Amino acid sequence: MKPCFTLSVKIRYLLSSFSIVMLLTACTSIGKGIAQAVLEKSETEDARQCQVWGQPFTGIQAGLGKEKGKTKVLFVHGVGDHIPGYTTQFLEKLAKELNLTARAYSQKNIGLSAPLLAGKDLGNLRVSHLLNEERGIDLTFYELTWSQITRKQKELLVFDNSGEYDFRRAKINSLLKKFSNDTGPDPIIYLGDSRDAILAAFTQSFCWMATGDWDDLPASGIHACTGLNDSSADYIAHDDYVFISHSLGSRITIDGMQRIAHLLANVAKYADASNNVNIADSAVVALQNKQVPIYMLSNQLPMLQLGRELPEVVGSPSEYCSITGANYNKRMVSKTEIIAFSDPNDLLSYGIPPGFAEQYIDTRLCPSITNVSINIARVMDAFGLADLANPLEAHVGYDNDDRVIALIAKGIDHPNASPLVNQRCEFTKEVK
Questions:
Q1: For residue 126, is it within any domain?
Q2: Between vectors from CA 27 to CA 21 and to CA 28, what angle results, nearest 5°?
Q3: Which domain holds residue 81?
Q4: Residues 6+ apart with CB under 8 A from 51
Q5: At 275, is the pLDDT very low, low, confident or very high (cuts 50, 70, 90)?
Q6: Among the listed ranges 186-195, 294-303, 376-385, 415-424, which one has the minimum average pLDDT value?
Q7: Residue 147 CA from chain centroid, whole number
């Protein structure tokens, strides 16, 4: 009887094991089915929000094809080490949205220098020329890479990333630490003695935009733009200037504009033969009549204002921006349209609150604020049990989002806005 008992036990053991395997397989299949259903739902039903509050804007396309004048776009990157060409994906999607079907055979790369910071390496300005030959429209795209200014100082953290030290970390923590070491120091460095150099790089980039067209730019080498002379006034009067920035780049762009406002208010101090700088009155007047949009991706202005000094002129928009104002002739531009993009699931971006522009942005820029609250990262919803959005994607994924590209290219709340924006974004006009 014992052998039969043993055999019976073995048979029951095998049957039990088989049942467990079948049960686990069924559970696994159900689990996979649930996960697949969630993923398919997120892929087929894109419920990401896009809400815009502020003033209508026309986007880049409105300036293309003018009888006189060109459209020129400057992109300013944020934290982290960048090399020339970092905007390639964004630029290709923008070109497609604007129906710019051709481009110049090669880009131009200008090593930036400045008369007031002689001998200082200020980074690279990479210039691309896009066009549609059949329609006779074109766009010049300027990509500022200022990472060279902070790269040397960040070498202080190289040991922390080295094999001598990094092997002690878990792999995921190692990746996170390398990311932190690459991005975290830049805002700190910017607050130190490198700030003047970074702002000079922005000022030089704007100067190159304002002093000629694609054919006038040097193809390579290190060059300094020495100012805005009478010949620049005609370009400034007729060209459209557009700024696009990301994270810390938005702070740099605003500070750079405020630096230019300071320079123009103190022409006698900075523009003389000794420093090889020239700023003509005609150029200043032409600039004062410009309306300039700034598209701020992953906007950080509120956070990066903490602990900083106030601008030179604040709190008096009617004096500088109204034609009847006492200081109307001291404005820098007629209007600065700030379109601030932020993903609510990005831990490092913020909407711009009411009253911020009046208190913390130089009044001579005549700023106007429009907020774009947009889900860049998808929110995963497991049947209402939990939801999560990748905060890193929410911070850096703007250049791959079709809605962002369409808003920058064609604006919102006007007849020529993109159908995608009309379908996917809600607009609320704010009135005073």
A1: yes
A2: 85
A3: 60-407
A4: 372, 373, 374, 425, 426, 428
A5: low
A6: 376-385
A7: 15
* Domain assignment present for 35: no
CA distance to 46, 97, 150, 283, 314, per residue, from 232 (Å): 47, 30, 31, 6, 29
Round to whole Å and give the CA distance between 357 and 432: 14
Residues 14-37: tens digit of each pLDDT: 444 444 444 444 444 444 454 455
Check residue 264 and give left, alpha or beta (phi > 0: left; psi -120 to 50: alpha): alpha
Pairing outcome for strands 222-224 and 227-228: unpaired
Q: Specify if 260 maps to a domain.
A: yes
Q: What is the DSSP letter of 379?
A: P
Q: pLDDT tens-digit profile of 203-244? A: 999 999 998 899 999 999 999 998 788 888 999 999 999 999
R_g over Cα of the chain = 27
pTM of this structure: 0.87
Q: At 60, list the tokens.
A: 């880049």
124, 84 in Cβ contact below 8 A?
A: yes
DSSP state letters, 143-199: EEE-HHHHHHHHGGGHHHHSHHHHTTS-HHHHHHHHHHHHHTHHHHHHTTTTHHHHH
pLDDT for position 34: 47
* CA 165 distance to own-chain centroid: 34
Side chain identity, residue 291:
Q
How many C-beta neighbours within 10 Å does residue 308 have?
11
Closest CA to 374 of 395, 348, 344: 344
- Give the phi and the psi of residue 5 in degrees, each rounded to 5: -65, -45
Please report, to the nearest 10 degrees, the dihedral formed by the alpha carbons of residues 402, 405, 408, 410 taken in order.
-60
Query: In angstroms, rounded to a whole number, what is the distance separating the alpha carbons of residues 306 and 386?
Result: 34
Share of the chain above pLDDT 90, in %: 64
At 4, is the secondary structure helix, strand, or coil? helix
What share of the chain has pLDDT > 70, as a percent?
Answer: 87
Mean residue pLDDT across the chain: 87
Q: Indicate the SS3 state at residue 222.
A: strand
Number of domains, the chain: 1
Quick check: is 177 in a domain? yes
